[in-house]
Specification:
The complex is a heterodimer. Chain A is an all-beta fold. Chain A contains no helices and 11 strands. Chain B is mostly beta strands. In chain B, strands 2, 4, 5, 9, 10 and 11 form a 6-stranded mixed beta sheet that branches. In chain B, strands 1-3-8-7-6 form a 5-stranded antiparallel beta sheet, with no helix packed on it. In chain B, a hairpin with an 8-residue loop joins β9 and β10. Chain B is globular. The chains are: A mainly beta, B mainly beta. Chains A and B meet through β5 and β10 of A and β4, β5, β9 and β10 of B.
């Protein structure tokens, strides 16, 4: 298995533009998580899906952020409009479930810079 | 907001020495405690998932213990090697199907040859 695949690896965009980050989880994993990594706050959970259904989006910073999981093999995180304070590394992770004993497999992350 | 604290924030250890560091987490509504190893320019990799009070897990020279009643876990590295240099993250899981993991900010370990 190729692991969790995120694209793009790096994204530089201008303030106000729309940004879409993509994630392909490991086949057979039914839980998918989006995290944001910053120096100040560390790894913060933004949203997670179980069987393609959003379960908890309380970590999404504001309405500019949205996430979808149209099928078991694809998820997107969209920021519209983007702002400089959104600059961070965004990680996607998947697991076999939220039950005990299942670790997460992380993607390589997308480093987003908003100028 | 769940509070997951790791200490120390960073640690310099001489090659060959053993070391340990701490993760503290809420002692109520415990479901699982995860440890991850995060090397620079890579993504976090799962080391252990611990679910029972008194659990002790081992992988090579790295081991971890868990005390859910007092809300702490220790990670031990025996005979540190330069390749052990990484940030070690712990993460608290408060309920199956209800929450994702809440991560600590990590202990940044540097092994000096």
């Amino acid at each position: 298995d190729a692991g969790v695949i995120q694209s793009p690896r790096h994204e530089v965009t201008e303030m106000g533009q729309e940004v879409t980050l993509r994630c392909k989880p490991i086949s057979g994993h039914n839980s998918l998580f989006w995290y944001r990594q910053t120096m100040m706050r560390g790894l913060e959970l933004l949203i997670y899906f179980n069987n393609n259904v959003p379960i908890d989006d309380s970590g999404m910073p504001e309405d500019r952020f949205s996430a979808k999981m149209p099928n078991a093999s694809f998820s997107t995180l969209k920021i519209q409009p983007s702002e400089p304070r959104d600059s961070a590394v965004y990680f996607c992770a998947s697991s076999q479930g939220t039950a005990r004993g299942y670790g997460y497999t992380f993607g390589s992350g997308t480093r987003l810079t908003v100028v | 907001i769940l509070n997951v604290e790791q200490s120390p924030q960073s640690l310099h250890v001489q090659e060959g020495d053993s070391t340990n560091f701490t993760c503290s987490f809420p002692s109520s509504n415990f479901y699982a405690l995860h440890w991850y190893r995060w090397e620079t320019a890579k993504s976090p990799e799962a080391l252990f998932v611990m679910t029972l009070n008194g659990d002790e897990k081992k992988k090579g020279r790295i081991s971890a213990t868990l005390n859910t009643k007092e809300g702490y876990s220790y990670l031990y590295i025996k005979g540190s090697q330069p390749e052990d240099s990484a940030t070690y993250l712990c993460a608290f899981h408060s309920g199956g199907g209800a929450d994702g993991l809440t991560f600590g900010k990590g202990t940044h370990l540097i092994i000096q040859p």
